[in-house]
Amino acid sequence: GPKLDMERRITASKRFNEIIDKIRSDDKTKSLFLGPSMSELQSLSDSGTIVAINVSSIRSDALIVTRDRTWHYRLQDLHQADVLQQAQKYLETLEQDTSIGRKKTNKSLHSIFKWLWDAIVGPTLSELGIVGKAQEWPRIWWIPIGLMSIFPIHAAGDHSGKTDRNVLDRVISSYATTIRSLSHSQ
Question: Is this structure's pTM higher than 0.85?
Answer without folding.
Answer: no
